Amino acid sequence: MGLINTVPPEELGGSKLHAEETGFADAVGATEDECLALVKRVLSYLPSHNRQVPPAAEVPTGSGAEMGTIADLVPEARNRAYDMTRVLRRLADGGEIFQVKERFGRSLVTALARMGGHVVGFVANQPIQKGGACDADGCDKATSFLALCDSFNLPLPLRPIDESASPRAVGPRRACRRTGSPSCRSRRTACM
Fold first, then answer.
1. What is d(CA 149, CA 153) in angstroms, rounded to the nearest whole number?
2. Which backbone phi and psi does 111 adopt, to 5 degrees?
3. What is the pLDDT of residues 46-86, one digit of tens each?
């Protein structure tokens, strides 16, 4: 005896699945025009090929004006959460960052930005998600992003990633199955 289930196409492999669960989608747009705008935006950070220097841009007026208040965003108590994207926006020219895999591995932030007109990659813990503990998805996200930055010679000015993975957050089996620990080791090696 079999059961017949109707599964919507989105659950079989739509954008939500690949943006939030598999991490295969770096960014998701609601319409075709929005998707094209996302592609143009990410390409504005990358050179035409890996032997070319990443494209520089003018530093927008007012960039760095709020740098003196950046410490106000990070609480002194280590057990208090804060939004790391707000900190990264203060560091970036014009407060503009492009998050890569924003909906996947949410305990980590990976983003392209410009500092002083030059393209950089940010990898940072996100304390408002799982206390910023790097889990298997976060390690996969970091590894993928570091490969992108390495391929296009993008520097990583920050390295506030917690050295310890948190397999308890997702379960030891999943961390081992997803090769979270080797991913974290490759991330640590690539950053040094």
1. 6
2. -150, 150
3. 999 999 999 999 999 988 888 888 888 988 888 889 999 99
Give the whole-angstrom CA distance, residue 96 versus residue 32.
Answer: 23
Instruction: Report CA Rg, the chain.
Output: 18
Quick one: pLDDT at residue 158?
58
Give 161's DSSP letter. Answer: -
DSSP one-letter string for 164-190: SB-HHHH-HHHHHHTTHHHHHHHHHHH
Q: If DSSP codes are grouped into helix, strand and coil, which group holds residue 131?
A: helix
Q: What is the DSSP letter of 134?
A: B
Residue 6: exposed, middle, or buried by beta-carbon count in 10 A (0-12, 13-18, 19+)?
Answer: exposed
One-letter amino acid of 87 = V
Query: Could you give the strand order of the β-sheet that contains 97-99, starting from the edge strand earlier in sequence?
Result: 97-99, 108-115, 118-125
Decide if 72 contacts 82 (C-beta within 8 A).
no
Q: Is CATH 3.90.226 correct for 15-191?
A: yes
